[in-house]
Amino acid sequence: MSxxxxxxFPPEEFEARTAKVQAEMDQAGLSGLLLMTEAExxxxxxxxxxxxxxxxxxxxxxxxxxxxxxxxxxxxxxLLMRQTWIDDIRTWPAPNPGDDGISLLTELLSPLASxxxxxxxxxxxxxxxxxxxxxxxxLIAALPGLQIKDATGLVRSLRMxxxxxxxxxxxxxxxxxxxxxxxxxxxxxxxxxxDEVFRAFxxxxxxxxxxxxxxxxGGADQGGYRDVISPPxxxxxQAGDILMLDSGATWDGYFCDFDxxxxxxxxxxxxRRAYDVLWxxxxxxxxxxxxxxxxxxxxxxxxxVIAQMDSAGGDVGRLGHGLGMQLTEWxxxxxxxxxxxxxxxxxxxxxxxxxxxxxxxxxxxxxVIRASGAELLTSRAAPELPVx
Amino acid sequence: MSxxxxxxFPPEEFEARTAKVQAEMDQAGLSGLLLMTEAExxxxxxxxxxxxxxxxxxxxxxxxxxxxxxxxxxxxxxLLMRQTWIDDIRTWPAPNPGDDGISLLTELLSPLASxxxxxxxxxxxxxxxxxxxxxxxxLIAALPGLQIKDATGLVRSLRMxxxxxxxxxxxxxxxxxxxxxxxxxxxxxxxxxxDEVFRAFxxxxxxxxxxxxxxxxGGADQGGYRDVISPPxxxxxQAGDILMLDSGATWDGYFCDFDxxxxxxxxxxxxRRAYDVLWxxxxxxxxxxxxxxxxxxxxxxxxxVIAQMDSAGGDVGRLGHGLGMQLTEWxxxxxxxxxxxxxxxxxxxxxxxxxxxxxxxxxxxxxVIRASGAELLTSRAAPELPVx
Lengths: 388, 388
Fold this sequence. Notes:
The structure is a homodimer.
Chain A: H1 11-28, E1 32-35, H2 38-45, E2 60-64, E3 70-74, H3 78-82, E4 88-92, H4 102-114, E5 118-121, H5 133-141, E6 147-150, H6 152-160, H7 164-182, H8 184-187, H9 194-207, E7 212-222, E8 241-251, E9 254-255, E10 258-263, H10 269-288, H11 295-306, E11 321-322, E12 329-332, E13 346-349, E14 352-355, E15 359-362, E16 365-370, E17 373-376
Parallel strand pairs in A: 1-5, 3-4, 5-6
Antiparallel strand pairs in A: 1-2, 2-3, 7-8, 8-9, 8-10, 11-12, 13-16, 14-15, 16-17
Helix pairs in contact in A: 4-5, 10-11
């Protein structure tokens, strides 16, 4: 696309991220950080590949107290890793069930273990252990003295606030997402099967510049859909259906995540009203989402509008979240989350409600937080339920 | 597509899988199996959604010694899970960092803990712990007496051998993959940027019936490519390039995984020779892949042909693997893997070699093992390097 930002990041981006995390590690008394998940390895190294789709091989990035991160990775990734800013790349011929990087990690971490030093791993909310649990247990057992601490808060606080270059990428993919949704009336018509609508959506995404659409869910049913995470059925759209499409498209490894609702041929009054309530809940969220507000306050602001129609709220668990290299990231707009919203966070506002006979409706917009408040990255949904 | 097999599986498929695993659990002295990864949850329940793209929420499926599996999942998934054969569905309003399913799991597992019973979790090769490690540690600590054993071997042995309905789906997506590759000469021409080739490949995949292309990598360079896991550059294809595209397209949650090589305008002699060696290594693999052969033997059979040009072999670590709900599955065609090949395994044959000045070439075909030997699921690559 002619107006695309550059792909990738210059080395100073990774230097800055690493310097920030090392300052926080110092404060937390951590002599290192052992990372193994796609987003974290990419965040600190720039290593970007779809090869993570294969569950076979573990990949490790170790951030020492000072200096550049150290990659401990399968040999198949060496050439790509050498194109990043990382210098110290240690490889083994993977897969090797008997020793998938464990000797290399043991060698790397032994000096720290002999000092009874502490290292951080991600053990907290929204994280996973992307290596065999048995290997992790063996590694820890081979390093007596090494203290393992949860570094989730530290990585979370860093990744939640986006850099200008990250915001540029997120802005680009959100604009692409808006252009995809503009085309929905061209292909979502009465008589078209929902799975064909999905296929046309993916085609439109490629046409307007998305790299990929890793996430696409939705629903359509008479007077409202009932589920928001299903794959598409082959049922043809019918007059009176409410159609929702929710997409996580990507560009250069960054996601948009928003949805749009449409009525096919005609809209019932209850769905119109649900739409209006959610549109206004989003407006309230847009006004409230500014530096200094907590996610809990943002949640209650949106929830108080939703309560005009649904006192219980939907069952989706929260009313929005962080957005970036992953479809959903920290924080959560939920009663449990007291995260203070900061400038340069990129967030979704995702109010939902239940109505009628087990129907659900979900709205979603993507925003970036500026000093003055929320700035939309998506083209704002129409104020009234659009009829195709 | 008019010739598509049915989507999903009838309940008897899940009954059979569950009965088989319960028989193996009985032999292994396991009173339950706690699963939390997408493929395993789907394999035993039929729960199929792209929502796993969001890392926020954990999902659990518990297989008791007798009876149907029990789902312990976020409320947002309840409606979709109720459409499967599962009856016992326990939900919580997720995300909830303070208790993301842990109380529900503790309640479920406490009776087993009080009997000092053993349960299985996946701790072995090619597995991950898809829940926060901290939550896992809290769960185990809350269940004194409960014995945790590695059940990787048990699940592996079951999933490696595909059912007729699974083979039908895999055959369908491999045929779709072959139709995509037939179109490559239409859009991969000198002057076309590699990222545009990728985009056209994804479009072609949708046109010929794929649901999605979660995995697409490749390379192109003068006289041979150097890397097989990179995202595409914007460099235009040039006369004398060797282009490789390697794709994991999906249909109904099942993958194909194979690649094709092309020369742009003209082919150099060394690349022609590398192609010929790999084509013959694949032929040797096709002849050797039959019930009773080990993966190690299959590896050595292909490696002995590859050694005609490259005594070290490539750096990709193995010469093929299992294929199914994941892009790569157990087993590995590698010297370490003594798995005995069985009827109804679906496998890739993926010989690779290094040549020239740091070039690499990879071939790949997908097969199903019949009583009489290997049956190709992909349209066999041309015996000579195709020139576009």
